[in-house]
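Continuing the batch. This is chain 6 of the set; chains 1 through 5 are on the previous pages. Same settings as before, nothing changed between runs. Recording input and output for traceability.
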Amino acid sequence: MNGLTVVCVSIVVFLAAYLGYGRWLVKTWGIDEKAVTPAHRFEDGQDFAPASRFTVFSHQFSSITGAGPVTGPIIAAMFGWGPALAWLILGGIFFGAVQDFTALYASVKNEGKSMGMLIEQYVGKAGRRMFLLFCWLFTLLVLAAFADIIANTFNGMTKAGEPNVPGAQAAMISMLYIFVAMGFGCFIRKVNPSGIVKFLAAVVLVIGMFAVGMEFPLYFDAQTWRYVTFGYCFIASVLPMWLLMEPRDYLSVFLLLGMVVGGVVGVLVANPVLNMPVFVGFEVNGKSLFPILFITIACGAVSGFHSLVSSGTSSKTVNNEKDMLSIGYGAMLIESLLGVVALVIACGAASGGVLPQGTPFQIFAGAISGFFQMFGLPAGVSACVITMCVSALAMTTIDSVARIGRMSFQELFTPSEGEEAGPIARLCMDRYFSTVVTLVLAYILCLAGYMNIWPLFGAANQLLSSLVLISLAVFLRTTGRKGWMLYVPMTFMFVVTMTALVMSAYGIVTKLGTGNFVPMVDGLQLVLALALMTLAVLVVQHCGKELAGGKEQAARVTAE
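Output for chain 6:
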């Protein structure tokens, strides 16, 4: 099988899914183009701020497209490219894109409320608090893992002790991105330029930042970059959306979409042969296809984190309800395409059914860099561009996670209607205090290292998707909308992720008494794994009761 066929067929399938299944969902649930969206109704210049469709799409796509769509498919290729490709396509269309769009839809239809607050409205107070605690713990894992990825990417020295020029250049460009984005945000806010002017200004700024960054690289060590990364997370969490995150995501989306287009065009030109078997077996290197495949490929197929972006930040900036399909459903399908491209590139670089040496990012970056050089880009520039793209994947995710983690912590202590917040609750609801608590605990986890955090993060991420799907099913049923299309995804993901978490917890427990158990690493992971499983069961129990009694709840909501 050649890569050209796989990519072309995937593009056609994704496009058909968007025009067919996506539009069918819109028609089934209903869109009101004349409705006043939460961005307009509650505009506060902080979290609620209406933005153009492409601006919100840029934020959504930049935030959800982290390390997953590149890392997951390449690792999953050990089972053969067939199972990985099937999960990317089917999962992306019927699981991930549906979840992302439905979460955005439900939030916009409910005053821009986050998933936790939606659960309180349709499930109850206990369900809300358990879900928010789950979300907050999950954001700690994401912050820790991605901060470590960023720090190691920007590290000024390689393991061999040589200068890491592409990493140091990308670090400087990333720092410029922060300050330039704020200036760009002020420019948009005050001048309100046309779409063409905004686009041209963004292109000029991106080229300028690359030119300066490549000329003046920053050679700091990994620990310094950890401090800088968490400092950036604090700023991104507390500043208004329009001032930093939205303009940064707008500037970053050109890099990310350029990487996707570069990968697709590269495959079209090179037409690599997939040098991996279609199917290797149900067990490879002691790992079974079920549940490992569906945990390994998260972003690109379905990721619970995406729903937090859809309902936590994007829903508060949607200008018109008609924009939701491209933002929620469309952004996910493009991410799935990136996953397909990463899979094809890795399998094309394989030899004799064996993937090249190196991390998934190194495999992918090497191939994309080669494509860029094929188009005439010098090797040094190409290496810097692809390193910057990789870092942008993580940076545009971690700032959204910091904000969502802060909001989850605040909402955890927010009193329900008719209740009054005490002094401790008021402190925990403070924007700055909640941000500091979230980032400090995430930093402690970060010290365990990316590789120790990622397995638990993957399982927790997929478990979150099952909780979100069942919660959204409750919303759809209680508001009189069809929700049967969520039943299979929510059940499948719950079984898969609970199986993976039980296996992970069992593996940690077996280390006890062997001398390999590290309390600050294994102990913390075990506590988190058990906490996540317990919270998940309780949330499903509460949502299941409401889903079973959906007709009575629907009548109550209608009456109210």
